[in-house]
Amino acid sequence: MNSFDGIIEFAAVAETNGFSAAAKQLGCSTSHVSRQVARLEERLGSSLLARSTRLVTLTDHGANYYHQVKELLIGLEQANELVNQQQTHLTGTLKVSAAGGFAEHFLAPALMEFSAMYPELTVEIDLNSRLVNLIEDGVDFAIRYGELSDSSLIARKLISRPLMAVASPLYLDQKGMPKHPVHLKHHNCLVANKDIWEFDVDGKKENIKVNSRWKSNNANLILEACTRGLGVAYMPKSTFTEAVEKKLLTPILEPYWGQGTSSWIVYPNKRFMPLRVRVAIDYLVDYFAKWQ
Prior knowledge:
Elements: H1 7-16, H2 19-26, H3 30-44, E1 49-51, E2 56-58, H4 60-84, E3 92-98, H5 101-117, E4 121-127, E5 141-145, E6 153-161, E7 163-167, H6 169-175, E8 188-191, E9 196-201, E10 204-209, E11 211-215, H7 219-227, E12 232-236, H8 237-245, E13 250-252, E14 261-268, H9 275-287
Parallel strand pairs: 3-4, 3-5, 8-11, 8-12
Antiparallel strand pairs: 1-2, 5-14, 6-14, 7-12, 7-13, 9-10
Helix pairs in contact: 1-2, 1-3, 1-4, 2-3, 5-9
Protein name: Transcriptional regulator
Pfam family, one: HTH_1
Family: Belongs to the LysR transcriptional regulatory family.
């Protein structure tokens, strides 16, 4: 059985391109990973990894070896998961990164319900707009909005987020009702991420550069500023649902609202995903499947 020692560590290094990242993924020390891989190479009589000060890459022998053993590791993971699924509880810590109004008002309550189902599970939610490195920061998965730039991550669509433009009745009484997106150039606009807003005009996308009186990367602050009459806001509908129902905000420019983008669950391409992470991701996808 000693011939299997180091294979898991080697696979983790191959997938993360580094000993430190592999150690964080496996929850052990960097020295342990390095030692196990070195012993594996010694037993095989071949160098599997090319090491440099900045990057660790696979040698030709290493690439061939990884291709062979990864299927064995997947089989081992599936066997372990089959046993775990027969248990009635999840344990350990689930670490989630998210930000924004959707995370606070919808994602967090969903994870509270999930946590209540598994009392031995610890859930940590980091509500931070910083773009975290999931592997280095030890995050199991994150909620990302819009276009995804990191192709190394696996992404599963959580929800679609169509847009809505709103303003308070007080603001509209003072400044008037805009009838077309181009009229926003003469209005105070509340900017969350960018001052170029995309609308659907006659079936075509049209970008309008707006004048921003208030800027914040926090959707709740944009919502508060809008209800106080500071200007026009244009964000996902879910941000404004309650305020519109209470007549605190009035929808405007409805024929021109854009389709917006989507929210995604993203996570590292790990061969050994803990059962608690897999179950949580599946739960959230199912939870929001019929979300409006």
